[in-house]
Amino acid sequence: MVTHRSDAEPAIRVDALRVVRGGRTVLPGLTLTVPRGQLIGLLGPSGCGKTTLMRCIVGVQQVAGGTVEVLGEPAGSEGLRRRVGYLTQDASVYLDLTITENIRYFATVVGVPGHGVDAEVLRVLGLVDLVDHASSRAGNLSGGELSRVSLAAALVGKPEVLVLDEPTVGLDPVLRRDLWAIFRRLAEGGVTLLVSSHVMDEAIRCDRLLLMRAGAVLADDTLQGVLAATGTTDAEQAFLTLVDRANSAAGSTPDTPPAHQPSHEAGP
Amino acid sequence: MSVRLTMATSTRVLQQIRHDRRTLALLLIVPCVLMGLLAWIYQNTPVFDAIGAPLLGMFPFLIMFLVTSIATLRERQSGTLERLLTMPLGKADLIGGYALAFGLLAALQAVIASSFALLVLGLDVAGAAWLLILVAVVDCLLGTALGLFLSAFATTEFQAVQFLPAFVLPQFLLCGLLVPRDQLPDVLRWISDLLPLSYAVDAMQTITIDANGTASVLGDVAIVLGFVIALVVLGAATLRRRTP
């Protein structure tokens, strides 16, 4: 269940995170916090380190330095594995199983007791509007349906933190709107959502934005805050302005955001 | 390790196989067809009775090795492994679930192939039929365990498939089927002493010629089972939650 006891503590705290993948430094020393119970958009171009950051938060990425804490515990620790839900960019479901068989298995794995599994399957399939397809083979579904099965698998067991990697990529506008409505409802229920996207116009649907580029945070603010700080009228222009500023800042250390210092980054 | 999660995983793996009817048919029928072919090639000669039992251990071993390697590699490449590793599933639950599911299929395959060889093809061995079936089942388990262990080191299907010639065929050459193990050059004999398939074939050869060899066969079975357990444990130990 979602609790509000320790709202002061951020849901995710990343400090000086360094990740090297295949000889390339993807995250050179990332520091950020994600407040609880909000819908946070992680925006930035492909290859800027969004997926790597998310893999660190769910504890499957080898880390070269720094710390990642989720709900006050080190990322990937055993207690977090049923409190954090993760949606990868791939569908990550078994194509040769039916939707129900897939969700039943994942529900059992996250620890839903045997007598509650059927109800949990119905609940999450209801959330993503797939109850009518419950007995279809995942391999026979359309791309949009498949990504909703994958989302349903991430929702089993009511995780307190949801890390969703490009959940709306390649989907039609209606489906994207429906998914963002689901995310909004979950956030209203107290769930913390970190949702990545490289589509800047999805920024308007988020409580806060983390704009990333080349492994560094360019801005960590509300959309209004970002627009005000850059004197622009939409997220894409704001992002481009921030990139230009970062580039013109002597090309020195791109990991110190020039535009904005996060207001909630309290000292230890 | 949790019994419930291990059972849930093996149920899920068996459900996947059940939806793939052709794979199931291939698994259960191909060893019988191969044994039938062998009996036909050597009709009216004593050769089938001499090598039938060792090959009855070999064919299902090869098939289960390949099937297991590819199945676990698919789990890795589809992204489902990454999802599972973020969930409260123990590494032993995953490997144990696979071992149980494929172990069950392996046992079924071995029982069908042995029964077919004994009853339909008239394979005549000195030892007891139950002993032959037991060794065939254990050989199948060995193929599954070796596949589970080695697939951790394959990152593509190309590599996984080539692990067959790289790690299985040398065992075949050294197992005593081509040249009896005590006639191998010393170095090769020592190597063959370290390979699990050698003991699997030793057991089958004892069953073929010795009616009173039960104790020796059970000793070989125990060694092969030791390899099976060690490979499964190593497979779980080498699985990493965090990857580069």
Cα-to-Cα separation, first versus last residue of chain A: 28 Å
If helices are DSSP runs of H or I spanning 4 or more residues, what is the number of helices of chain A?
Answer: 7
Query: Would you tell me the structural class of the helices and strands of chain A?
Result: alpha/beta
- Report the portion of residues of chain B in β strands: under 5%
Structural class of chain B: mainly alpha
Shape of chain A: globular
H/E element sequence of chain A:
EEEHEEEHHHEHEEEHH
The pLDDT mean of chain B sits at: 92
Question: N-to-C SSE series of chain B?
Answer: HHHHHHHHHH
Radius of gyration of chain A: 19 Å
Query: Which spans of chain B have pLDDT < 50 for at least 5 consecutive residues?
Result: none
Give the topology, please:
The complex is a heterodimer of chains A (268) and B (244).
Chain A: E1 12-21, E2 24-34, E3 39-43, H1 50-58, E4 65-70, E5 73-74, E6 84-87, H2 99-109, H3 117-127, H4 143-155, E7 161-164, H5 173-188, E8 192-197, E9 208-213, E10 216-221, H6 223-230, H7 235-248
Parallel strand pairs in A: 3-8, 3-9, 6-7, 7-8
Antiparallel strand pairs in A: 1-2, 1-4, 4-5, 9-10
Helix pairs in contact in A: 2-3, 2-4, 3-4, 6-7
Chain B: H1 3-19, H2 21-41, H3 47-77, H4 80-85, H5 91-120, H6 129-151, H7 157-174, H8 186-194, H9 196-209, H10 214-238
Helix pairs in contact in B: 1-5, 2-3, 2-5, 3-5, 3-6, 3-7, 3-9, 5-6, 5-10, 6-9, 6-10, 9-10
